[in-house]
Structures are given as structure tokens and as C-alpha cells.
Amino acid sequence: MMPDSLSSLVPALLQRDPAACVGWRADQPLSNAWLLARVRAWGALLAGQPGRDYALYLDDSLEFGAALLGAWQAGKTVWLTADTLDASCAALQGKVNGFLGQFPPQWQPLAVPGDAAPETAAVPPPRALPDDFPALVVHTSGSTGAAQAVPKRLSQLASEVAVLERMFSARLGDAAIVATVSHQHIYGLLFKVLWPLCAARPLQALSVQYPEELAQALAQRPSVLVSSPAHLKRLPAHLDWTAAADRLRAVFSSGGPLPEEAALGAGAMLGQVPREIYGSSETGGVAWRQRAAGAAASVCWQAFPNVEWRIAADAEQGEGALEVRSPHLPDANWLALADRARPAGSQAFELLGRADRIVKVEEKRVSLDALEAALQASGLAEQVRIVPDDGARIRLAAFVVLNQEGRALLAAQGKAALNQRLRSVLAPVAEAVALPRRWRYLDSLPLNAQGKTTRAALLALLDEEPAALEQRPRQPHWRELERGEQRLLLELSVPPDLLYFEGHFPGSPILPGVAQLDWAIVQARKAFDLPPVFREVAALKFQQVIVPGATVQLELLHDRAKASVQFRYLSAAGQHASGRLLFAAP
User: Which of 274-288, 303-317, 485-499, 549-563 is predicted with the least confidence, judged by mean pLDDT?
Assistant: First the structure.
């Protein structure tokens, strides 16, 4: 069945069976009549509001769909945001005339009570909308930089809905839509709200958060799963997916490439290998693929039937920037993407990574993709992201989710040693000056509602550095070996994550001399009766460095007559440092 046109969706709702199920909220069915009433209520609320632009945020996909259609009926352009954080709302404040839905109270959001029934006189009759209606403003994910606003005409959205139905409807039938992703971005909006409403497929109002809930939801009725790599890579194999696989008709994934192992693993559990959708907020849907074991061609992407593509004219050896043209775009011009590609026959292409992931550090060109791939292949990491920080000079920051072996190494040898190990892994890929200078080891990468890891979220972890540093040890582990009236011998074990190794030096941490001097003074004052004023250090020498995890001895010899203390750090490797501490009365 071809879907109703998006431009005439609200009038089409009047022609449908009022009692037909449009979806479920907490297992309670909701009807077409309910949906139409909510559309009218939102339309009535907004019809009398000034201005054209309104930000919309609602967790419930059915209520969101009603608010979106009602806003369009009232002639409003809807702005979508991935969250309601203060920074996101503040960025919207100067661009919209008001807020709708579940924004914090300080933004004075408008909302329609759940039991509201509009006055008939206040509701304009349902109308079809013109193709050039300014329907939406979505935002890019922010995974490579600051999120950008992207306006969408109704015709662009309508063309996407139509081509999705054309390509995939034969397998879906009247299956219900179950999603793990949010509708507050273009992929979720299309696959979870607009396409199902146009095609009269019922949908679950709330996103499914946990695998146990997902297995249960998919087992209830014939279903379609709308998901992302972040969720599909983490499906627990110990759950019983048998009933879900029996009723599941298709799985869609978008937001990034799904590794072949994860795609086939999800297919084995769910009975359907995911269909991956390639596109972006700017381009809309571009292409799709479905992986198959041992099939080299399944790595390639098949363009949507209404999308033209080509490789940039200045491409070398057939590889270069991908360019697309389609009715999903604002005009008929070719749009150059940041993704590099090469043809794979006349109808398909292979993606080769992003061109904007080549950066210059200290005048050296570095591929962030190559660095990440090398760390991924180290045998220590499950996931890796490397991004440039926001400093005046470009430096790279590495964010690593360790595997079991990596976690064991971190626990045994500390962060500095692990940093050094991973930097050595990267040595064949880039010169030393261009390697990451900052390292963060995470339990998991931060994900937004789209299941994406944004550059802003990663850099925010660097902002938390001062608090994290405060928790790192500033002292070694001390043990007294010998004590006499004028002599003290101590053993000290230097923690690998000692605060003073931070930045001294990246990739080759050593204990700063000033820390060694401070420890000697503090221990001398504890052990001996010394004048209150430290005057100077004489004959100070540093012979060998002290590295993270080292165990050394500190010998202190007190000369009461000269108010001085001779100190030296030594180990089996020899003497590391020595000097004479001189004290004086006030």
C-alpha cells in the first residue's frame, strides 16, 4: 500500500477508520480518532500564537506526531533539538518564538493537557499543505563539530517517506514500529513517526531502553525494529530472542556504520540482518546495505532509487569526495559530502572514511581514522574515538574504552604506562609530535538520544579534568627501613597514576625534580628537629630519572651543627638524585 502523502496526511486521517489502532502507550491502544483529536488540540493552541518558529520536544512519539502535525496545520515551523539541556535551549532562544512540550519551566513551554478537547470553532478545518511549506529545522548530530541547523521543506520530507515505502514496504506489511532511538532527529523522525503515520502502521509511543524490554516488545506482534549501531552492538546473547525473531519482519540501523561482526551477530539473534541506512541531516537518506557473511559486495552501499551520486571530478585513482543530488535536498545542485568513496559497479559505492578526519597537528597531516584503527587493532581497546581539542593549538585527545586485557594493564601498571604502550602502537601511523597528548579511559563512550558520540560530549570530559586530577595521589607509598638518631632510610613506591606525572612528559612520564625535593624536605622535617626556615638546597644533582611504578630508597643524613640534611634517592639501578638541604632560624 502506498502511503498517504505527507502534505495531505491530516485530511487523510479523517478518511481512516476512527477506531483503528494508531499505536500503543504502555500497552494501551490508541486510535486514529484519538490522534486526530490531539492534532486538532495542538493546532488550536498554536493557531493564536505569534511568530512562526517553535521548538518541540516530547518523549512520546505519538504525542510528538500529533504536536508536529498540529503545528504544521497552524502554519508553524518546528525546530527539533536532541535534548533540553540549558545550553541547547539557550541556543534556540534567539531563533524561535516559543517552546512546546517538555522543556524546563524557565523556558515557559506551551503544552496541551492530556484530556484537552478543542472548541470546534477554534479549530481550522484540516488542510493539505503546499510542497514548499517550511516544515522543519533539524540539527546535525555534532559528531565532528558544532551542531548546525538544517531547514527542511515539506517536499523534502515527503520524498523520503515515499521512497522508503517504495523500497521496503513489501517486507513490512502492517507490522508495528518498535524503536530504540529518539524521533528528535531526522532518522528517528522519518522511520519512527512520519513514515508509519503515512503508511498507517501502528507504533510504540515510547522508545525501548533495555534489551529485556526490547525482547518482550518484539515478541508481542509482527514488528519492525528501528535502531542504531550503539544498541545493536550490545544485544546480550544470553537473552532468549526466539519469540522476537519469529515475529520480526525487518531491522533498520542508522547513525554510523555497523561492523560486519555486529550486523551478523544481531541477525543471528533477531532473525533479520539489519538494513543499514546511510545519510545525514543535510542529505536525508542516501543509500542502504545489508551485510552477508563472506560476501565482499555487502560492504558496499546501494543508492536510493531517487538519489544520484558521483565521485568528485578531482578524485585520484577513482577515490574522492562523494557528491549526491536528490529531491531530499533543498535544490537541484550537487552536494559534496565529507565522506570519501569509490565506485563499486554502476549502482553502488564503497565508503572510505571522512575527508574531514584528516587534520594537521604541528604541520603534520594525521588521519584520525588511521589512529583509531591502529588502537582498535592493539588488542587492548573495544572502542576508540580521537578528536582535536579546542585549544589555541591543535592537540589530539584520545578516548578509549578498554577491553579486559586493557583494563588489567591499566590496573597493574597505571595510566602513564598504558599511555606509553598505546603511543608506541601509534608510532608507525604518525610522527610523535602528532600523537594524542591527552588520554581518557572510559567505561563507555557518551551517547546522545541518537545513539551517537558527539565531539562536544567528548570534549566535556576533558573539562572534568581538574576534579579528576584532584583525586589522583600526590604521595608515594612510604615504608620505613632503618631509623637512627641522625639517619633515616625510607622506601617509596611511586604510583603509576601520581598527579605529578601529568604533562611531565606526554608519552614519557618522569617524576619531576621539584617533587623529589619536596618529599625530601617533608620527610626531613618529620624525622629531625630542624630550624623553621628552609634556606636553600646545595649540590643538587639529578643522575637518573624516576619513572611511574618505580620503587626507590630515600636516605636522609642529619648534621645538627650545620642545620642541614644530606639526601639521596637510590635503587638497584644506582643513584637517582642527591643534594644538601640547608635550614636557618628566623
Answer: 303-317
